[in-house]
Design brief:
single chain, 329 residues, alpha/beta, TIM Barrel, 2 domains, two-stranded antiparallel sheet, 14% strand
């Protein structure tokens, strides 16, 4: 068993958390990860009304008695507004979910210190996903319970400081006193052991959970991630001030071409619109939309159940740690 501040804080078996994924982190996958001993993720932006969102939380609770996280991504969106963000967080407090993973605008700027106090009073643990020491320090100062240290390797939208996991995790660990979770490049037991060696109290994965039996995505997508390697992602939408790491495909090539010749948001929007991604996950067309996955896809070699994945990761991490201990003479 690997005991950390994360396993203690949430009373879970493994210090492994699922990160946010639009259209994918819904009740079935969330509950499967929590039932397997980790912390599943319910991504709030999948739901546009309070009733839908509250209903999704209740559905997770029908599928698992274990704790899970809710993600609230407070970044510019054509569909989700700041009022949605505040609603999600209010409902999280009312429903007393185990924890929230916040990215983008921090809670104190999103809803003031009273929002933080409301979540604290409800027993909701607050983690902010950051890519820099300065943002981690701010989160600690205003009362967050932990930090997700997100390296440039991660899928989605890494901070444009472009700091790698290998450097970012220990820098944040030495700069704050609250627990740090490593994000970016994590997909197996060796990388879990590495994160712990860097001072992290746990790891967060997203891409790895796509290629699991319980993820509700077309089989073509799962197999594509098994086939692809670590060099098969690239950074897009830098010109919009919100870079994203996505799988190299036809649509991503078109995005990069538009950016290279100075095309703006109006030309890019049809290519990066969330609706394209939602359709691609269902149809299995790996060329049809940007698929925001991380460099960790190079470590994905199979499609296990969530239980098999987490058990295998921890066994591999324990073996790696034992092997390292045996090297000390």
């Amino acid at each position: 068993m690997i005991k950390t501040a994360i396993t203690e804080m949430f009373s879970v078996k493994y210090p492994i958390l699922c990160g946010a994924m639009m259209w994918l982190c819904k009740p079935t996958l969330c509950a499967a990860i929590s039932n397997a001993g980790g912390l599943g993720n319910l991504t709030a932006a999948n739901y546009e009304t309070e009733d839908e969102f509250r209903g999704a939380i209740k559905e997770v609770r029908k599928l698992t008695d274990n704790p899970f996280m809710v993600n609230v991504t407070a970044l510019p969106s054509m569909r989700i507004t700041s009022e949605h963000h505040k609603m999600y967080l209010r409902v999280c407090a009312e429903e007393k979910v185990a924890g929230v993973e916040v990215s983008g605008t921090p809670l104190d700027k999103l809803g003031g210190m009273e929002l933080i106090e409301t979540l604290k009073s409800a027993g909701v643990k607050m983690f902010h996903k950051v890519g820099s020491v300065r943002h981690a320090k701010h989160a600690e100062e205003v009362g967050y319970d932990g930090i997700y240290a997100a390296g440039i390797e991660e899928g989605g939208h890494p901070l444009d400081d472009d700091v790698s996991t290998m450097v970012l995790t220990p820098r944040i660990v030495e700069s704050v006193s609250i627990p740090v979770v490593t994000v970016g490049g994590i997909a197996n037991g060796v990388t879990l052991a590495a994160a712990l060696a860097l001072g992290a109290e746990g790891v967060m994965m997203a891409s790895r959970f796509i290629s699991t039996k319980e993820c509700e995505v077309h089989g073509n997508i799962k197999m594509e991630l098994v086939k692809r390697q670590e060099q098969d992602t690239t950074l897009i939408t830098k010109s919009l001030g919100m870079q994203g790491r996505a799988l190299k495909n036809k649509t991503v090539a078109e995005v990069l071409e538009v950016e290279a010749r100075g095309g703006g948001l109006e030309e890019l929007l049809p290519l990066i619109a969330g609706k394209r991604g939602a359709e691609a996950w269902v149809t299995g067309d790996v060329e049809a939309a940007p698929m925001y996955v991380g460099q960790s896809i190079g470590l994905i070699h199979d499609i296990p159940s969530c239980e098999e994945l987490l058990q295998g990761m921890v066994a591999e991490a324990e073996a790696q740690i034992t092997n390292l201990k045996n090297r000390i003479v």
